[in-house]
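Dear colleague,

Thank you for sharing your sequence with our group. We've completed the structure prediction you requested, and as agreed, I am returning the results in plain text so they can be pasted directly into your records. Please verify that the sequence below matches your submission; if there's any discrepancy, let me know and we will rerun it promptly.
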Amino acid sequence: MWEKDHKILSELISNNVEIPLIPLPNSSNEVTLTENIDNTSYSIKIKGLPKETFILKADEFPALLNFFKGLQGECKRADYVIFTNIKNKKIAIFLELKSGNPDNKDSINQLKGAFCLYKYLQKVGQIFWGYTNFLMDYEIEFAVIKEIPQKIKLKKQSPNFRRENLVSQIPLDNSNSLEIPKYFLSLKYQQEIYFRTLL
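Please find the predicted structure tokens below.
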């Protein structure tokens, strides 16, 4: 049940990790997600978010470098996790933002690491809140938005991108896990997108 999941997430997740939505007059919401690298920020605005949405900044969860060796990329985290409920369909979107176009392997490890955080949150809610269905039965989606224009570079970039290169599905890897998707969605050159694009 979404209402119960939302209640537990609100009680569990610190306020500085939850990303607030901006309500709009047309009963939808939007949010601006911002990342900083080398004192330069870049951001993506997501429009048309459903009312029943909870966003958390996953990379605020500390990398367990004093516990794990990190040899397989298990200490990495994607930037955000978006939980939403659309017509009684629960969806969790794991989202990584990139200002450049790095190798997909790093992004894949970040997406997987955020999924592991999701499983950890699931068990915390089930055990400490006593709700056995917490974060159960979610459709899992992985997405990476690459080459997000940085504010200081906006005027230098040409807007004439080939449309077919903007959105693509990329195989995740040879993982045999049935819990994670076989592909992740790759988007490029975006500063504003509609939420439905991530689905």
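Summary note from our side: The two ends are 21 Å apart (CA to CA).

Kind regards,
the structure core
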